[in-house]
Predict the structure.
Amino acid sequence: MILATASLAACGFHLQGAFIAPTGMERTYIATSDRYSLFLREFEARLRSAGVELTDSAADATATFTISFDDTSQRVLSVSARNVPTEYEVYYTLTYSLDAGETNLMPQQTLTLTRDYTYDSTLVLGKAREEELLRDAIVQDLVRIVMKQISTL
Protein backbone atom coordinates (compact mmCIF):
# COMPACT_ATOMS: atom_id res chain seq x y z
CA MET A 1 0.00 0.00 0.00
CA ILE A 2 2.78 2.43 0.92
CA LEU A 3 4.72 1.48 -2.22
CA ALA A 4 1.67 2.13 -4.43
CA THR A 5 1.05 5.51 -2.80
CA ALA A 6 4.70 6.50 -3.15
CA SER A 7 4.81 5.51 -6.82
CA LEU A 8 1.63 7.49 -7.58
CA ALA A 9 3.01 10.54 -5.81
CA ALA A 10 6.31 10.23 -7.66
CA CYS A 11 4.67 10.23 -11.10
CA GLY A 12 2.80 13.48 -10.42
CA PHE A 13 -0.66 11.95 -10.04
CA HIS A 14 -3.12 14.18 -8.16
CA LEU A 15 -6.77 13.64 -7.43
CA GLN A 16 -8.92 16.31 -9.02
CA GLY A 17 -10.13 18.55 -6.25
CA ALA A 18 -12.85 21.12 -6.03
CA PHE A 19 -12.64 24.28 -8.10
CA ILE A 20 -10.77 27.07 -6.38
CA ALA A 21 -11.26 30.48 -7.94
CA PRO A 22 -8.04 32.33 -8.68
CA THR A 23 -7.26 35.59 -6.91
CA GLY A 24 -9.27 38.39 -8.44
CA MET A 25 -12.40 36.37 -9.20
CA GLU A 26 -14.10 36.93 -5.85
CA ARG A 27 -16.78 39.09 -7.51
CA THR A 28 -17.27 38.19 -11.15
CA TYR A 29 -19.45 39.73 -13.83
CA ILE A 30 -20.43 37.57 -16.79
CA ALA A 31 -20.83 39.62 -19.96
CA THR A 32 -23.01 37.87 -22.55
CA SER A 33 -25.77 38.65 -24.99
CA ASP A 34 -27.75 35.49 -24.16
CA ARG A 35 -28.69 35.38 -20.46
CA TYR A 36 -30.59 32.08 -20.91
CA SER A 37 -28.08 29.84 -22.66
CA LEU A 38 -27.54 26.31 -21.44
CA PHE A 39 -23.85 26.96 -20.83
CA LEU A 40 -24.42 30.16 -18.86
CA ARG A 41 -26.93 28.60 -16.47
CA GLU A 42 -24.64 25.68 -15.65
CA PHE A 43 -21.52 27.86 -15.47
CA GLU A 44 -23.16 30.30 -13.04
CA ALA A 45 -24.32 27.44 -10.83
CA ARG A 46 -20.80 25.99 -10.69
CA LEU A 47 -19.22 29.37 -9.90
CA ARG A 48 -21.72 30.01 -7.10
CA SER A 49 -21.08 26.57 -5.61
CA ALA A 50 -17.36 27.39 -5.61
CA GLY A 51 -18.01 30.53 -3.57
CA VAL A 52 -17.69 33.10 -6.37
CA GLU A 53 -20.07 36.04 -6.00
CA LEU A 54 -21.71 36.93 -9.32
CA THR A 55 -22.50 40.61 -9.79
CA ASP A 56 -25.00 42.33 -12.07
CA SER A 57 -22.67 45.22 -12.82
CA ALA A 58 -19.22 45.24 -14.37
CA ALA A 59 -18.34 48.25 -12.21
CA ASP A 60 -18.76 46.20 -9.01
CA ALA A 61 -16.79 43.21 -10.29
CA THR A 62 -13.18 42.27 -9.72
CA ALA A 63 -13.22 40.09 -12.87
CA THR A 64 -15.22 39.91 -16.09
CA PHE A 65 -15.89 36.64 -17.88
CA THR A 66 -16.95 37.52 -21.44
CA ILE A 67 -18.90 35.11 -23.61
CA SER A 68 -18.70 36.57 -27.10
CA PHE A 69 -20.21 33.58 -28.95
CA ASP A 70 -22.51 30.86 -27.60
CA ASP A 71 -24.24 28.65 -30.17
CA THR A 72 -25.65 25.16 -30.32
CA SER A 73 -27.33 23.32 -33.16
CA GLN A 74 -27.25 20.11 -35.15
CA ARG A 75 -26.35 19.10 -38.68
CA VAL A 76 -26.94 16.05 -40.83
CA LEU A 77 -24.00 13.67 -41.03
CA SER A 78 -25.42 11.00 -43.33
CA VAL A 79 -28.52 10.18 -45.33
CA SER A 80 -30.05 6.94 -46.59
CA ALA A 81 -30.49 5.93 -50.23
CA ARG A 82 -33.96 7.52 -50.09
CA ASN A 83 -32.40 10.85 -48.97
CA VAL A 84 -33.66 10.51 -45.39
CA PRO A 85 -31.28 11.62 -42.59
CA THR A 86 -29.88 8.64 -40.69
CA GLU A 87 -27.25 10.33 -38.55
CA TYR A 88 -26.98 13.76 -36.93
CA GLU A 89 -24.24 15.66 -35.17
CA VAL A 90 -25.05 17.93 -32.21
CA TYR A 91 -22.49 20.66 -31.59
CA TYR A 92 -21.93 23.49 -29.12
CA THR A 93 -19.48 26.32 -29.79
CA LEU A 94 -18.34 28.77 -27.15
CA THR A 95 -15.97 31.76 -27.42
CA TYR A 96 -14.90 33.35 -24.14
CA SER A 97 -12.24 35.33 -22.29
CA LEU A 98 -11.47 36.37 -18.71
CA ASP A 99 -10.21 39.76 -17.52
CA ALA A 100 -9.44 41.09 -14.05
CA GLY A 101 -9.49 44.86 -14.30
CA GLU A 102 -6.98 45.83 -16.98
CA THR A 103 -5.24 42.44 -16.80
CA ASN A 104 -6.19 39.78 -19.33
CA LEU A 105 -6.12 36.49 -17.39
CA MET A 106 -7.31 34.33 -20.27
CA PRO A 107 -7.18 35.46 -23.90
CA GLN A 108 -10.18 34.84 -26.14
CA GLN A 109 -10.59 31.14 -26.84
CA THR A 110 -13.06 29.08 -28.83
CA LEU A 111 -14.21 25.60 -27.85
CA THR A 112 -16.42 23.36 -29.98
CA LEU A 113 -17.63 19.99 -28.74
CA THR A 114 -19.66 17.56 -30.83
CA ARG A 115 -21.59 14.33 -30.36
CA ASP A 116 -23.34 12.30 -33.01
CA TYR A 117 -26.32 9.99 -32.91
CA THR A 118 -28.25 7.79 -35.30
CA TYR A 119 -31.72 8.84 -36.32
CA ASP A 120 -34.75 6.63 -36.91
CA SER A 121 -37.94 8.29 -38.14
CA THR A 122 -40.04 5.70 -36.30
CA LEU A 123 -38.57 6.79 -32.94
CA VAL A 124 -38.98 10.55 -33.22
CA LEU A 125 -39.78 11.26 -29.56
CA GLY A 126 -36.98 9.08 -28.25
CA LYS A 127 -34.45 10.61 -30.62
CA ALA A 128 -35.50 14.14 -29.63
CA ARG A 129 -34.85 13.21 -26.00
CA GLU A 130 -31.50 11.66 -26.97
CA GLU A 131 -30.51 14.91 -28.68
CA GLU A 132 -31.47 16.87 -25.56
CA LEU A 133 -29.40 14.56 -23.34
CA LEU A 134 -26.41 14.82 -25.68
CA ARG A 135 -26.66 18.62 -25.62
CA ASP A 136 -26.75 18.58 -21.80
CA ALA A 137 -23.70 16.30 -21.71
CA ILE A 138 -21.83 18.65 -24.05
CA VAL A 139 -22.65 21.61 -21.79
CA GLN A 140 -21.40 19.70 -18.73
CA ASP A 141 -18.14 18.94 -20.57
CA LEU A 142 -17.73 22.56 -21.70
CA VAL A 143 -18.25 23.86 -18.18
CA ARG A 144 -15.78 21.31 -16.81
CA ILE A 145 -13.14 22.35 -19.39
CA VAL A 146 -13.60 26.08 -18.75
CA MET A 147 -13.52 25.62 -14.97
CA LYS A 148 -10.33 23.57 -15.29
CA GLN A 149 -8.72 26.29 -17.42
CA ILE A 150 -9.70 28.98 -14.92
CA SER A 151 -8.42 26.96 -11.96
CA THR A 152 -4.95 26.76 -13.53
CA LEU A 153 -4.57 30.56 -13.52
Notes: The mean pLDDT is 88. Strands lie at 27-32, 53-55, 63-79, 85-100, 103-118. Helices lie at 2-10, 38-49, 124-151. The radius of gyration is 20 Å.
